[in-house]
Description:
Elements: H1 5-17, E1 21-26, E2 32-33, E3 48-53, E4 56-59, E5 80-87, E6 92-98, H2 102-109, E7 114-123, E8 126-133
Parallel strand pairs: 6-8
Antiparallel strand pairs: 1-2, 1-3, 4-5, 4-7, 5-6, 7-8
Amino acid sequence: MSVKLEKVVEKFYEGLEEGKFLGRKCKECGAVEFPPVYACNTCGCMDMEWVEISGKAVMKSIVMPAALSSKPEYSQMGPIAYGEVEIEEGASFNAVVKGINKKKRKELLEKLPVPVHAEIFQRDGYKTVVFALDEE
């Protein structure tokens, strides 16, 4: 199998430029990996294919960023938190979730998991994926 890791990363970012969330689906067990990876995290198979992800997800945990670890590039987004996010296609990972301050976190903790959705965020020179709370 001659897929280079750089090509996986490149294809993911090209998808974001087109407004698409791309993941990789294992041809062996059907598990979907997002963000995309070289080999399946479920069974280890390297035979993967590209799939478009819906962007629908749930946030299962919330961690507020420490003052020392706050990233200036996220300041234009407003308040953020970090959380375990599980997309409807099955993959689970840690992500930035916007729109959460300490007060909102307190409200949300009793309701977890809460629905969120992926959004494309423009950083310096490239786009990346963040999540936002669904409207209640």
